[in-house]
Design brief:
By secondary structure, this protein is of the alpha/beta class. The protein has 3 domains: 1-187, GTPase HflX, N-terminal domain (Rossmann fold); 191-366, P-loop containing nucleotide triphosphate hydrolases (Rossmann fold), CATH 3.40.50; 372-424, no CATH class. Helices cover 41% and strands 19% of the residues. It is built from 16 helices and 13 strands. The strands form 3 sheets. Strands 6-7-5-8-9-10 form a 6-stranded mixed beta sheet, with helices on both faces. The chain has a 4-stranded parallel beta sheet with strand order 2-1-3-4, with helices on both faces. Strand 6 (230-233) and strand 7 (242-246) form a beta hairpin.
Length: 434
């Protein structure tokens, strides 16, 4: 059982309220396997250097936690080594902060060897500065809420052994980065375009991924249900070879060293031709969540990558939310809408499938590399091979038979159009841009 605490400074316009972040901490704690039995907020102009929340609040939290039978206290702020030591001594209970809670969730979610390496590196980088002076209280730090992670034995090792392990993990992850770079180069050589899903955790990215790619990636309402990246073929109306990548969800106050440790995974976003920024349209704090995503994309130097904003979960929006936004556009309307002052937007429901066709058309239109155009071809009536190629890799709009010739109009990628025109070498097969 856990007790959650958050320090609240004066409200800042445009930033999430402390109550909202505390509710998110509640969700994170539940995802990590804790049962939250109480919470507390404090308004203070500056953090207390010794205990973050001040001696009076420490006494109040201690009394409430003991009366509720708690064995763990979670703070919604990063704690310094001194604050962590002082709080554990004052509470005589295990204390963790938001960063360690997120690391524990990541340790539980990592399934691949790559993910486990990245999580362990982030954990050790977090723990290293907290080794000094902890003495007998050190064992309480290991493994977050659960028992995953470096564990008590490693945490009791000296700094030299921890640093040695960090070096080995860094080298292993560098090998992973090299392998991923080779895979990306191979996909580029085969002219595969990549589209990547990004967004706040639990925005519905994996459900949308499954629907678009006809896959069965694990989905869950838990935060950070997806940790290891997945890449699948994305069928589009143009039938171009496009891959869709599903990545870890973002969150407010994501630890910097965790982002650094997951650089090998997040580099999958760097080669993307288009980012699908997925937002939970029904979430009351979607604006703040989008702001956190935007900040992380800027940190990753991805803010300039072409982006399509996908408003998901429109089936969960109540009448009040629709009223605040105005009427939610239909799938057909959202496919036609373009916003010169910002990214294009599409409204969908990954649960019901509403708007998926519009989303696919928008993706097709926004892929600037090897764009889709309309073209007119004149084929011989015996040229079944090229006609079959148009049907397989493009969208045939019309076919007209004129004697021993076939007039075909199709939508297809520019690269395929040029290949066909070069092979046909017929002046009358002039392309028409659409």
């Amino acid at each position: 059982m856990g007790w959650a605490s958050s320090r609240r400074a004066a409200p800042v316009p445009g930033l999430p309220d402390a109550q909202d972040t505390l509710e998110e901490l509640h969700e994170l704690s539940t995802s990590a396997g804790a049962q939250v039995v109480g919470s507390a907020l404090q308004r203070a102009p500056e953090p207390d250097p010794a205990t973050l929340v001040g001696r009076g609040k420490v006494d109040e939290i201690r009394a409430s936690a003991l009366s509720a039978g708690s064995n763990l206290i979670i703070f919604d702020h990063d704690l310094t080594p001194t604050q962590l030591r002082n709080l554990e001594q004052a509470f005589d209970l295990k204390v963790i902060d938001r960063t360690q809670l997120i690391l524990d969730i990541f340790a539980r979610r990592a399934r691949t060897r790559e993910g486990q390496l990245q999580v362990e590196l982030a954990q050790l980088n977090y723990l290293l500065p907290r080794l000094s002076g902890r003495g007998t209280l050190l064992s309480r730090l290991g493994g977050g809420i659960g028992t995953r992670g470096p564990g008590e034995q490693k945490l009791e090792s000296d700094r030299r052994r921890i640093r040695s392990r960090i070096r080995r993990l860094t080298e292993a992850i560098e090998r992973v980065r090299s392998q991923r770079a080779l895979h990306r180069a191979h996909r580029r050589a085969r002219q595969f375009l990549t589209v990547a899903l990004v967004g706040y955790t639990n925005a519905g990215k994996s459900t949308l991924f499954n629907l678009l790619t006809r896959s069965r990636v694990t989905t869950s309402a838990r935060l950070f249900a997806t940790l290891d990246p997945t890449v699948r073929a994305l069928p589009l109306p143009s039938r171009r070879p496009v891959l869709l990548s599903d990545t870890v969800g973002f969150i407010r106050k994501l630890p910097a060293h965790l982002v650094a440790s997951f650089r090998a995974t997040l580099e999958e976003l760097e080669g993307a031709s288009l980012l699908l920024q997925v937002t939970d349209a029904a979430h009351p704090q979607h604006a703040q969540q989008d702001a956190a995503v935007e900040t992380l994309l800027e940190d990753l130097e991805l803010a300039s990558t072409p982006r399509l904003h996908v408003w998901n979960k429109v089936d969960l929006m109540d009448s009040r939310e629709v009223g605040r936004r105005g009427r939610v556009p239909s799938a057909q309307e959202s496919a036609m809408r373009s916003f010169p002052s910002g990214p294009r937007e599409v409204w969908v429901s990954a649960r019901t499938g509403e708007g998926l066709e519009a989303l696919a058309r928008n993706i097709d239109e926004m892929l600037e590399a090897d764009p889709v155009v309309e073209a007119q071809f004149e084929l011989s009536s015996s040229d079944s091979e090229r006609l079959a190629l148009l049907y397989r890799l493009g969208t045939v709009l019309s076919v007209a038979y004129e004697g021993d010739r076939i007039q075909v109009r199709a939508r297809l990628a520019v690269s395929l159009r040029e290949r066909l025109l070069a092979a046909l070498a017929l002046p009358q097969s002039s392309p028409v841009s659409g």
